[in-house]
Amino acid sequence: MFGYTDLYGGYNGGQAEYVRVPMANAGPKIIPDGLDDDEVLFLTDIFPTGWSAVKWGKVKPGDTVVIFGSGPVGLMAQKAAWLHGAERVIAVDPLDYRLEKARTVNKVETINSNDEDLMGKIRAMTNGRGADVAIDAVGMEANRTFAEKAKAVLNMEKGTMKVIEMCTEAVRRSGTIAVVGVYASPYDNFPIHRIFDKGLIMQFGQAQTHMYIDQCFEMVRSGKVVLNDIITHKLPLSQASEAYDMFKKENR
Fold first, then answer.
1. Domains detected in the chain
2. Helix H segments across the chain?
3. Pick from 129, 123, 140: which is nearest to 204 by CA?
4. Which of 123, 135, 181, 195 has its CA 20 to 30 A from that of 56?
5. 94: number of Cβ within 10 Å
6. Rounded Cα distance, 177 and 53, in Å
7. Treating both helix axes as pointing N-terminal to C-terminal, what angle do 46-56 and 72-83 enclose, rounded to 10 degrees?
8. Using one digit for the tens of pLDDT, what is the confidence trace for 70-96?
């Protein structure tokens, strides 16, 4: 993984102008004539990540899927859920502009995660059962209160696992949880009691991009999915720092 510390090989250049590619006979893919870069750009990471989450969740026709996070990975997981036959897809996020994007490009139902009755609404939308599958597309960087931040410092934790907790509440008994959001430390008060009581199945991990990229590419080539409708801004690499500043400060 490029630019992702020694934990994953120590390869430089995750978002560089030039990248030295090890094992270049296995990693790169040739883009066929007739497809624009924008159409296949998201096959490098976020669509296979969303696809992995849906595969791990074993989404099947008729399922109700609740996806926490409507950033790029969450949006792609929503697309993948529809492609796997989900009957309903519910997106949860604290930012209204992200939820609007989810409704516009993916035709999903949405709930703001700041809603005081979030779990009550999810249960009401699922006839009291909960979702068949819950997907964590957020990870440890979820919104936190000051008290939650203080607790993390005291326990030497990085970020928070509150989205995993939400998933365990939102999913039905014997349901499945897929976690593609990144976590990087142990956590106190892990909800093992609820996982045990509800008989939940869980799978975590980095996206299995090489396993799924050919399937994902075929979805794009055949026109079964559109990926570039999530693009909001186009900037040259020379303005990358400005783009990050925009993302951090303006949430746009």
1. 44-204 (3.40.50.720)
2. 37-40, 46-56, 72-83, 96-106, 118-125, 146-154, 162-170, 192-198, 209-221, 240-250
3. 140
4. 123
5. 16
6. 9
7. 50
8. 999 999 999 999 999 999 999 999 999
